[in-house]
Amino acid sequence: MSANATASSPSTVLGRQLGDELRRLREAAALTTTQAAEALDCTKGKISRIENGRVTVRIPDLTAMLLTYGAMDAELRDRLSLLARKANRRRRQGWWNQYGSVVADTYRDYIALEAMAGTIRTFQAQLVPGLLQTPEYIRAVTVASHQWQTADEIEQFVQVRLARQERLASDSPLQLRAVLSEAVLLQQVGGPKVMSAQLEQLLIASARPNVTIQVLPFSRGAHASMFGPYVVLGFPEEAALDVVLADNPTGSMWLEREAEVGRYQELFDAARTSALSPVESRTVIRRRAKEHRA
């Protein structure tokens, strides 16, 4: 799969056209995004993503928006419904959909948003971020999860993760800022040889201008991010709102309300401040890589 294919966005021309029309109708109704969200019983983030063409617009949601905005013209409603259906069909052509048998809905949603993100800030407590994993490391994690049983399923999942990584080297590269607990460097994923190669890969990745890696050492003690990993996705569109994917004991959850997202932005800033500098982190990663080789 080419880098261009991986970087392609499900935010198609049709999706943006529909979003522009809905924004115009909202503004004509003299409603702010906050007011529209309250009237539609959804979040401001959802309104923002619809207007920026970043998500599928279901016909019931479209109908509710048009009613809220006072768009009663039948011809307009029919035209926008047809546009939504065409945009949704185009959106389903994202490269990740060919792996539907091994990629869960939540992960598919994440990949779609990641394809449109401009920045990713992530804290990881035990695992190397997926965008920085070697094939052998991915394979070891996949086998250990027991979610995929056959060799073919495991290999398909490895290919999905490798395809995602092409965003880091695309013409419009993703900006990745990662804070890793020191435990990430010590966890024997796949054994010493795999871990040594993985840490060497972190050193190579950290030399990229669009990748920043920091290590949060054990010596810093307790910290607010130690309760679980999370990812904060930021988008390039003006006024677009960040989205958070956080892990918890029962699975992953999306957070998009401003107060919740703001909390995770603060958590990441605190983790980044407590962590070693990128230069110091490279020294620690290099030392741990040598220890795995010993």
TrEMBL record:
Annotated ranges, domain HTH cro/C1-type: 22-76
SMART domains: HTH_XRE (SM00530)
PROSITE patterns: HTH_CROC1
Signal sequence region: none
TM helices/strands, residue ranges: none
InterPro entries: Cro/C1-type_HTH, DUF5753, Lambda_DNA-bd_dom_sf
Coiled coil: none
Protein name listed in UniProt: Helix-turn-helix domain-containing protein
